[in-house]
Specification:
Blueprint (H helix, E strand, L loop, with lengths): L5 E6 L3 H13 L4 E4 L2 H7 L5 E7 L7 H10 L6 E5 L4 H9 L4 E4 L4 H13 L1 H19 L3 H10 L5 H8 L3 H15 L4 H14 L1
Parallel strand pairs: 1-2, 1-3, 3-4, 4-5
Helix pairs in contact: 6-10, 7-9, 8-9
């Protein structure tokens, strides 16, 4: 599945609902992918997917809220539109607390459905840019040697060269050389940017 194509991912254990939604959205020009269970979707999920997820709440096996929680743990940026035929305030509160983009009741209103999808798609570009930036940072950090990672980890804790040297049993001059190489590999020219890159990466992993 191409990572740069906006897709509506449909997860519902009712084949009639899956077929109806798939047909409706396809007729409207949306690219779709359907899954019969939360387990199937999670097995197939890729972090580069963009678009939105139409997720039924009440399903056999993993229910929609469990799938939503798992995607949160995976740091997925795919907007989730919860769909249910058994809506109540408690359920809606749980869904929105877990960052659902919208909450729609069955039978689905076409206007509300298309509006929710378009709203989710409007955020897809930002999510994709975030993913690409994260991957770029990860690749840059992978270019560091184990020793350079050790030096970087100490730098971001606020340690100075004179403190890093004895901690790693190397000279201050060697620390300076490692620091210069780290900055070159990461494309930065100051310690503040080193800290920013390192902290952003740790926050996303």
């Amino acid at each position: 599945m191409m990572s740069n194509e906006l897709t509506v991912f449909i997860v519902d254990d009712d084949p009639a609902v899956r077929d109806a939604l798939g047909l409706l959205l396809s007729i409207k020009g949306y690219r779709t992918a359907v899954f019969a269970s939360g387990e199937d979707f999670l097995r197939a999920w890729r972090p580069e997917w963009i678009g939105c997820l139409l997720l039924d709440v009440r399903m056999s096996g993993l229910d929609g809220l469990a799938v939503q929680k798992k995607l949160g743990e995976l740091h997925s940026h795919l907007p989730i539109i919860i769909i249910t035929g058994h809506a109540d305030v408690s359920l809606a509160r749980q869904a929105f607390k877990a960052q659902a983009a919208d909450f729609l009741e069955k039978p689905l209103d076409d206007v509300k459905l298309f509006g929710a999808i378009e709203e989710a798609f409007s955020h897809a570009g930002a999510a994709q840019a975030e993913f690409q930036h994260r991957e770029h940072t990860r690749r840059l950090l992978q270019n560091l040697t184990p020793r350079e990672r050790q030096v970087l980890d100490l730098i971001v804790t606020g340690q100075h060269n004179r403190n890093i040297a004895p901690a790693l049993d190397i000279s201050v001059r060697t620390v300076e050389v490692h620091k210069a190489r780290i900055m070159s590999k990461l494309g930065v020219d100051n310690v503040a940017d080193l800290v920013r890159i390192s902290m952003l990466h740790k926050a996303r992993t």
